[in-house]
Every structure is written in C-alpha cells, then in structure tokens.
Amino acid sequence: MTPNFRRIVPSAVLALWYAVLFVILALIARSAPADTSSRKTLVVLGDSIAAGYGVDPAEAFPARLQQKSDAAGLPFSVVNAGISGDTTAGGLRRLDWLLRRPVDVLLLELGGNDGLRGLPPEATRSNLAGIITRTREKNPDTRIIVAGMQMPPNMGEAYTSRFQALFPEVAKEYKATLFPFLLEGVGGIPALNQPDQIHPTAEGHALIASNLWLIIEPVLREAAGK
User: Fold this and answer.
1) What distance in Å separates the CA atoms of residue 27 and residue 169, rounded to the nearest whole number?
2) What was the pLDDT predicted at 137?
3) What is the C-alpha separation between 65 and 24, in angstroms, rounded?
4) Which CATH class, in words, describes the domain spanning 40-224?
5) Domains of the chain: which residue ranges?
6) Looking at the annotation, which residues are catalytic?
7) pTM for the whole thing?
C-alpha cells in the first residue's frame, strides 16, 4: 500500500513538537525556585548596625548570615528587621507586627542606642525581657539569641558596668543564647569602622557575621532538626 504522506508527515511533526515541549517544561521545572514553604525564619531585630547603616545592604551582617546559612544548606530565610536609631522600647513596640509571621529564631540586637542616650539600664533590661516574653507567648518554640553591647568609658564606670551586665542577666534568666558582645574584634578598631567610629565598615560586618555564626549555626541546626 502506498503510504499517505499527508497523514504521516503531520503526525511526525506533531510528535516532534510534543517532544520539544516536554524538554522545555522539564528545563523550566529544574530552573524554578525551590519550594520555600518549608523554610524557617531567622529574624534580626536590631538598630542601625543590623540595618547596615553606611554600607550596601548585601554587606550588612544579616545578609552575610543568609549567605552562610545557604552555604551550610540550612533552610532559613533571614529577615532584617533593623531600623536605624531604634531602641529596645522601639523594638518592643513593633514586635507584634513582626510576630504576624512565624519566627523560628530571633536574634535580638538592640540596646546600643539606649546606652548612647544614657537611658536607665533597668528600662533596657525590662524591654529586652518584654520582647523575649511576648515572642514566646506567640510561639513557645522560638529560639532567642541575645547580642550584648558595651558602652565607651566616657559614659562613666558605674553606668558602663551596669549596662554591660544586663545582657547576660537577661539571657540567663530567660534561658536565651548569649552572644556576649556584638562588636567583638570590631568596636574601637578604626579600620573596621566608618568615620563616626560607631558603625562598622563592610569588612567589620563580615567579621561580625563570622563571629555570630559560631553561636548561631548550632541554634539554627537545632531549630531545623539537623
């Protein structure tokens, strides 16, 4: 029987078209972003240091923590909730808004502006405690990391000593993980700070992130069940 090329050729073209379409769809599926529904959240509640004052946002330590988390294969999205000039009272006021989304790990980086303004350490302590308490009321399983701060000597010995002591006190009382001093190895070093000698440079942020990671990684792994 003589083949009917009018039927065979279109069928072959159609089959080829389906094969190409299948390959395209497969490539799209492979390149599509991974499902983030199972990702957990690390919120950095902080001030201008977390916000990355004076540096590119990608150079601030929260963004660098995201890079480290991704490199370690940990399923976390880092939310930078840093606002320049914020105090512990400000953090407490905006906490309910942040808690509208699940918070698996909270890095509490507030208090520096309290100290620079000479606010009573007892008020700072009370606000930090309030943030931790309210967070755990919303989600008892949230891991809390308290980043300590220190004041320069010109604030007076009595004030600087009391201020420095409140962070470990809060961490101990509320069973939070303590990072003793956020600016360890950075504070007071001109090359790692901007001209104001308060806000870190990009290199300073890199060192902060590296120091923090030693404390944060085990907490993230525990929260992720790894």
Assistant:
1) 54
2) 97
3) 35
4) alpha beta
5) 1-32, 40-224
6) 48, 196, 199
7) 0.83
